[in-house]
Amino acid sequence: MSSLLDGSALTHEKDVVWLEDLSVLDYVRQTIDKTPRRLGKPRWLRDGRMVGYAELDATAEADPDSGLHRRRVFFLLPHDRDLEPDGPYAAGAPGEAVDPRTIEPKAVGKKTPRSQRGRASV
């Protein structure tokens, strides 16, 4: 199983940068954001915290209308399992959640027993 993202949006990824230690995260949420740059940490104006992001290769072109690049961003919300282990995702996970250990450039992350049911299921 994969996340809700379509892999065709990831063709220009060259690297994934992590801002936190993955060994303590059962899952991360992934989304596509529009950013003005191909490289570097994008601005984060959403709830929760950014835990990683993708950088794009030199051939990635910005949208001709907006001038923005589509980049994958990894994040967690305050009620996610890492901060609330007995909260709403003590078992189960949000639809866009994937195991961060399965994330690579150009490849949609995968759902695993750890990401879906918690550390006890590994």
UniProtKB/TrEMBL annotation:
Highest taxon, organism lineage? Bacteria
Feature: compositional bias, Basic residues: 108-122
Q: Which InterPro entries match?
A: DUF6009
From the UniProt entry, list the residue stretches annotated as the region Disordered: 80-122
Protein name, UniProt field: Transcription factor
Organism of provenance? Streptomyces kaniharaensis
